[in-house]
């Protein structure tokens, strides 16, 4: 009896070992965890993918809270030729960085072989994910960004609605301040996402030169009148219209200030909409108080961002599994999950804004409608600048805010930083 | 017999020497070698520039100048103020006043907390919105003195410095251990000769624990040459480069600017600084000892 039992145990152990050997594990470091707005969506997609590929492929998430930490981690792994099978390019231009090291897999053969996947790409998505005729990325979310405002606080200050011009906008900031309300959520740490959105909007709406600047990929010269003018406004916004912890604060601080009703406006994309009705982040009923708008002068950010990238791996099975993961994460289904569960706009124009999403997030429908009035559309500054400038933005914004640095000096610091990439 | 013994010694030393070569000597050689190149990983490039990186570092790079200055200031403060605090407390405790053991343990606590936790604690103390420091100032009716302590260029250097300067628990423990091992007869003799308590401490005990003070000073200097986490987790070296030191500049040069040759040049300067400081401290204290 003992012998039989021992044999059984040994057989089971061997089976387990064989099964473990056959399973491909995809290590997936991501910043879309914890309080990140996309965290619930990614968690669901990982769970579903793992369930669909039980015993074959398993995604193992490595949590890296904070975008800046994620970018640094990827750079370290890139330098040591140890990239995970899948990385998320997002708005940080990781594609060019990884491509410079010849670390990416051309997805074109896989996409061409799958009509459903191919249908997910429109011209802009193809452009942003392609280099020299090869396709390296697959996008999951749109990068359409305006700003949110607190209707209750606007009403309290006697403001009727979002500003149509920058003059009107700055008058509103003054009105809010006079009413004892902090007008803006801003940040400087972790690449200063919220602040850079205001900065980009100011540049893009400053005329043809500003639009041309925003259309450039990796600009080398920030010493331009439109950038300096925008920085002058940003300096004033820090000094007069934001919270005391904005300088040195991260996106999370800026978001908390808005979600707690402390500030009246925050620049961000529709992926934040889900947070307004999440009672762990905002008070009950907060979603009803929030309005959404495009920026003054008819501007909105509207360029697809780089999506998921598959990196070269020694094991072809891992590479194949990584392609499968990216296909699933950027499928029409995944984009619909993100849309309906978190209010994230899809990257593909072929994914319909469903009634379920509109019902759950009326703000999303409001934003889509507001977008129709956008006459100027560009990518974000973060998506086009050299990656090292994200660090310089974070380091130097406190100096700009305190007045220790002039807007001209700040522009020069960015220009110097860009030159260090040569 | 002697040859056989030498063979055994060589055999026992072999693993250590091999480990040293693999872990320290070879990377050190690579660091020295690549510091002479414009060496970047993406796109890969390795062009020989001779001492070009060193020339740029010392003649053009204002970020390096500031980081070097910060590092030197921190080394100076850490080897003087920080050690002095530890030594004074050790002198106060070596006569075992009531509760000396409790004081020794309590003062040691900040030194056993991980740097990551210490950084978080101070980030909260200095927070401009809800931090303890600003709340205290408001409570004292000194609201006009409130600052964004870590991110105001006028206060950031001092604020970061205070994170590590006041807590000298390790040094207190080390100096105290040597003070406690001193022969009581020396102190008794001083007492008989009419030395006051202050004279006993500063003219008898302090010179006798000088070797340990030298050791703690070397440790303090090297600690400041390695300091990274406390700065990275509080200010990341900002605003601008106000709180950047050489290790942080090295990290940023390599990781955000992909300039590995230049980063290794900074690494070589850090090593040289370490050697200079250790030699200097040893020589100064040994000379006086002699």
Using the CA coordinates, give the radius of gyration of chain B.
Answer: 24 Å
**Share in helix of chain B:** over 70%
How far do the termini of chain B sit from each other?
39 Å
Poorly predicted regions of chain A: none
- What is the count of DSSP helices of chain A, taking H or I runs of 4+ residues? 21
Mind telling me the CATH class of the largest domain in chain A?
Alpha Beta
In the CATH hierarchy, what is the architecture of chain B at level 2? Orthogonal Bundle
CATH architecture of the largest domain in chain A: 3-Layer(aba) Sandwich
Give an account of the 3D structure.
The complex is a heterodimer of chains A (422) and B (290). With 422 residues, chain A is an alpha/beta fold. Helix content of chain A is 51%, strand content 14%. Chain A contains 21 helices and 13 strands. In chain A, the strands form 4 sheets. In chain A, strands 7, 8, 9, 10, 11 and 13 form a 6-stranded mixed sheet that branches. A 3-stranded antiparallel sheet of chain A has the order 3-12-6. In chain A, strands 1-2 form a two-stranded parallel ribbon. Chain B has one domain: MetI-like fold. Chain B has a two-stranded antiparallel ribbon with strand order 1-2. The chains are: A alpha/beta (422), B mainly alpha (290).
């Amino acid at each position: 009896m003992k012998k039989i039992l021992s044999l059984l145990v040994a057989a089971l152990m061997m089976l387990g070992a064989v099964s473990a050997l056959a399973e491909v594990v995809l290590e997936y470091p991501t910043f879309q965890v914890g309080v990140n707005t996309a965290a619930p969506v990614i968690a669901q997609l990982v769970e579903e993918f793992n369930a669909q590929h039980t015993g074959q492929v398993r995604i193992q998430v490595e949590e890296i809270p904070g975008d800046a930490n994620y970018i640094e981690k990827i750079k370290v792994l890139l330098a040591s030729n140890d990239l995970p099978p899948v990385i998320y390019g997002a708005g940080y231009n990781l594609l060019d960085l990884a491509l410079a090291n010849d670390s990416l897999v051309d997805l074109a053969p896989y996409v061409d072989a799958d009509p459903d996947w191919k249908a997910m790409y429109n011209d802009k998505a193809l452009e942003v994910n392609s280099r020299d005729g090869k396709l390296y990325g697959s996008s999951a979310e749109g990068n359409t960004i305006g700003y949110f405002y607190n209707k209750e606080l606007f009403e309290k200050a006697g403001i009727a609605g979002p500003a149509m011009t920058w003059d009107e906008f700055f008058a509103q900031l003054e009105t809010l301040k006079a009413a004892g309300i902090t007008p803006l959520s801003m940040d400087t740490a972790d690449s200063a996402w919220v602040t850079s959105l205001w900065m980009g909007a100011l540049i893009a709406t400053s005329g043809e030169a500003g639009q041309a600047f925003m259309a450039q990929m990796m600009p080398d010269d920030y010493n331009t009148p439109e950038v300096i003018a925008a920085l002058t406004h940003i300096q004033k916004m820090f000094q007069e219209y934001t919270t005391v912890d904005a300088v040195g604060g991260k996106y999370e601080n800026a978001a908390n200030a808005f979600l707690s009703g402390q500030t009246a406006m925050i620049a961000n994309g529709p992926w934040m909409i889900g947070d307004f009705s999440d009672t762990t982040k905002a008070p009950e009923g907060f979603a009803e108080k929030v309005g959404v708008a495009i920026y003054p002068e008819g501007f909105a950010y509207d360029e697809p961002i780089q999506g998921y990238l598959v990196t070269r791996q020694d094991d072809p099975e891992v590479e194949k599994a990584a392609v499968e993961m990216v296909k699933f994460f950027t499928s029409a289904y995944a984009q619909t999950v993100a849309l309906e569960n978190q209010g994230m706009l899809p990257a593909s124009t072929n994914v319909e804004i469903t009634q379920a999403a509109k019902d759950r997030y009326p703000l999303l429908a409001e934003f889509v409608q507001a977008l129709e009035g956008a006459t100027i559309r560009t990518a974000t500054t973060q998506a086009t600048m050299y990656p090292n400038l994200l660090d310089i933005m974070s380091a130097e914004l406190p100096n700009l805010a305190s007045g220790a640095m002039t807007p001209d000096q700040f522009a020069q610091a960015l220009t110097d930083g860009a030159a260090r990439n040569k | 017999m002697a040859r056989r013994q030498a063979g055994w010694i060589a055999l026992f030393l072999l693993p250590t020497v091999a480990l040293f070569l693999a872990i320290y000597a070879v990377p050190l050689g690579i660091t020295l070698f690549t510091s002479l190149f414009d060496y970047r990983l993406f796109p890969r490039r390795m062009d020989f520039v001779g001492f070009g990186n060193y020339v740029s570092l010392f003649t053009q790079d204002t970020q390096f100048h500031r980081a070097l200055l910060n590092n030197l200031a921190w080394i100076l403060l850490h080897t003087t103020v920080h050690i002095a605090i530890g030594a004074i407390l050790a002198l106060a405790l070596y006569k075992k006043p009531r509760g000396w053991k409790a004081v020794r343990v309590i003062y040691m606590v900040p030194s056993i907390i991980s740097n990551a936790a210490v950084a978080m604690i101070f980030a909260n103390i200095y927070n401009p919105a809800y931090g303890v420091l600003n709340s205290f100032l408001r409570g004292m009716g000194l609201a006009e003195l409130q600052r964004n302590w870590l991110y105001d260029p006028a206060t950031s250097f001092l604020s970061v410095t205070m994170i590590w300067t006041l807590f000298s628990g390790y040094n207190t423990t080390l100096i105290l251990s040597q003070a406690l091992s001193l022969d009581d007869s020396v102190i008794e003799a001083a007492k008989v000769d009419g030395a006051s308590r202050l004279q006993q401490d500063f003219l008898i005990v302090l010179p006798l624990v000088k070797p340990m003070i030298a050791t703690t000073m070397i440790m303090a200097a090297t600690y400041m040459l390695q300091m990274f986490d406390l700065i990275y987790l509080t200010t990341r070296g900002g605003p601008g480069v106000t709180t950047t030191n050489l290790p942080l500049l090295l990290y940023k040069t390599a990781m955000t600017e992909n300039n590995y040759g230049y980063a290794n040049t900074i690494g070589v300067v850090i090593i040289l600084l370490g050697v200079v400081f250790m030699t200097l401290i040893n020589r100064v204290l040994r000379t006086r000892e002699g």
